[in-house]
Amino acid sequence: MARVEAEYNRAMAALSGRAPPDHDPSSDAGDQHAVAADTRHAREARAREVDRLSLGEPRVGLGEAERWLAAEPVGEGRGWALRSIASAMRFNGAYERAEQYYAEAEQAFQDLGLADEVARTRVGRVDALRNLGRYEPALALARDNLAYLHSRGEVMSLEVARQNNNLGLVYWRLGDLRGALACFRRARTGFRRRQERDLDALASMNIGLVLAELGRYREALQVDHSAARHFRALGLRERLATVQMNLGLLHLRRGEYARALGELGASRVLCEELGLDAKRVAVDLDLARTYLALNLHSEAAEACARAVNTSRRLELPFELAHSLMYSGQAAERLGDLPTARAQMGEAEKVFARAGNAVWQAAATVQAIRLASRIEDATSFDDLIEAGRAAAARLETLGALEQAATAHLVVGGLLAQSGRTDEARASYGAATALGEQLGADEVLRLAYAARGTLDQTTAPEVALGWLMRAAEHLERLRERARADDLKMSVMGDGGDLYDRIAGLLIRADSSDRAREAFEWLERGKSRGLLEEALAASEPASFRRAPGVRRARERVKEVRARLNSAYTERYAVDRAPEAREAPAGSGGVERLEADLAQATRDLQMLVRGDRGADLSALRGVEPVQVALPNGGCLLEYALLGQELICFVVTRDSFVVERGLGTRRQLEEAAQWFWFHIRKGSFGAHFVRANQRTLAPAMDRALRHLGDLLLAPLAGVLDRTDHVVVVPHGLLHTLPFHALSIGGTPLLEHSTVSYAPSAAVFAAAECGDRPLTSPLVLAPDLPDLPWVGDEAERVAGLFPDAVLLTGRRATLKALRRNAPFCDALHLATHGVFRADNPRFSALELADGWLSVGELAELSGGRSLVTLSACHTGMSGIGPGDELLGLTRAVLGAGSRALVASLWAANDDTTATLMARFYAGLRQGQTRAASLRQASLDVRASEPHPYFWAPFILVGAP
Fold first, then answer.
1. Is the terminal CB of the chain with fewer CB neighbours within 10 Å at N or C?
2. Do the Cβ atoms of 64 and 70 come closer than 8 Å?
3. How far is 120 from 106, CA to CA, in rounded Å?
């Protein structure tokens, strides 16, 4: 900038007849025309420099323009300075003030009779009017200005291209996509002819914006990536923020949610740094759309609230209408229908006033969908006709994605009205558009809707549709990358696998039963299995740019959260207070920060394609993995029916009609009512054994009658039972359920697995355990853990024992890599409200789920001898959330954990006997069985002997 300013000062001095300090009086000044030409060149150079600064650092550019105006308060220079200020204001998002400065500059040039400068000023003024939603004045001004610019010939060819670019943006705001595309292409041709690289990239970015609206995603992706490279190379950060925003929206439309969030996050960071409030609104809108697609409704509502407030403050009608529409959708999904209706109604009116036909029709469709939730199906005729009109209008305008949404909404209304043939036609229209667009989300919704429509009357046809819907769901899930995003994607379609399995088992065919089993496995605990298989992922991919910073961010937030947990769950607080949800704002904010940091890291280190799991899904891999005399019981709740797939080494059957969902829920509630009496303490249970035992036995017998008795024939021939639960069954101790009057554990060894595929993947050769790391902090209300730790460690000469004050996070991190097992005897906090933030207490803080995962990788066994450590939240796709997921997902072979708060003294005895069995060469499952039976011999109530389960490789 200093060089440009020096040349400018030299030219100004020459124009005024004053020599600059280094002027040689003997030099020939030349004629006045040469001086004027030099002055113009200097002003042009300074204007370009202000624009360059504004594109990189908008506030810096504005400051430079204001200094220019202060230096030239009159004459032609004043007009140039005013125009530069207006341009800088526009880059800063201050559109009202920009338009005022453009008008003032235009008047200044008119007063001087400088018609060309008036035309150049109007080019920018059109864009300011566009951003203010004054589309008709912008159109009229742009058309008049183009006529003048064309009349001036080649001398104004660059301004013709600029005006076409800004006119295209007006057409885009009005929903005239084809008109916008034609303008942007003419602009790009003009910029290329003049070899204006930055403006060429700008026009290309705008072309990409329209191509995305027209559903031509692949072309849009190419031009946007090219534009981003140019802006990055030229240091044009304001335009880079814009193209990153466009790329984010494009990835969203392609169902690439992780990439969408990555681009939008990068764009928002730039907007924050550059103070671009108006552009940040647009980014928040695209973030809201992405969150809505991912079923992250609270995050969508938060992004919308920011966008609504800023849009109102800056008086941005186009952005305000979008903010209201997406905010209405978020409110609807959060159950606030009155707010949703009010916001969508306002959005529709704002779009109508703005004259944007595309978004007015899109808002109408959303209002129709919402009305269908409130009104009675008998009054749907008007809604259907309005939806059909909106769909036709959107197709005519080229907004194919919005048109597909309209057809889906109309199809739903027709289906609810019983007009199934018309509904099929509407869903067919949505399918055709989805295929044309290559839009997985549209196709998932359309195929699932068609499957639902045919499910009763044509189950085979329905199967085909639902299977196709599942394929598109899986594509979306893979591209989500991060665990929480994958589960969010599954949340809106995870029941597809259950519905497919339910249709398949209706056929009462062995082949179809196998298919049903494979489809259930295809959707069950898939994320955990992918994590376990990815434990050996090549390190080269993990060294992608930004990974180190992302890991450091996770570590930093985790440390801060650890401190917050230490304060919240202090050792002198009552146990019930420890198990309460984390409600303090500080803890909640840190948990949200850690979730975001973890998501960012996973999006960086993972690709768009998951591991190939097909080889693990069928019956055969399970049969190969089963020990002799073993069987696997995989339960499933399909609709209201409880079924069980029974797999042995040489047979496969499905047992149907074990019970209903309601029967199971009531039986489970009755069991938990009785087992929780252990919370009154061991003394209470022992003192009241005679009265407590009969009720407990009845609860266990009732569950056994539902879950085990129908399988008595195969269980009589089984030495080892692998239980794969489903839904609420994950909370039950199958080994304690009664069959034939005695616990299942009396008959067989019992282990558990999140899915049959997880079991098959984990079952392979295992080396004897030799060097466990045994850790037990000195906690006031756990007096037995030190004794437990010493008894366990004493069985292994190479064990590492950390007790009391030595049982720290730092010591655990230092020693874990050199040990083949972890035994953690301590307090556990199971966060039922958010299982991902369950934790274990150590001497100097809390071991989080994420850090436990990092320390568990490659271990043959992890034992969490603490209360509730085996409890898991259940996410979409029957995904386990919590400590179990952390250990098995990290690649550990097996986990021993508790389903309820175990008694301290009996736990010490049970664990010592469990590890003694391992030392003698018993398998993990057999050793845990014998230890549990030994405790049962002296403590018959299941509160004492049945809390611990083994999950994973037996």
1. N
2. no
3. 9
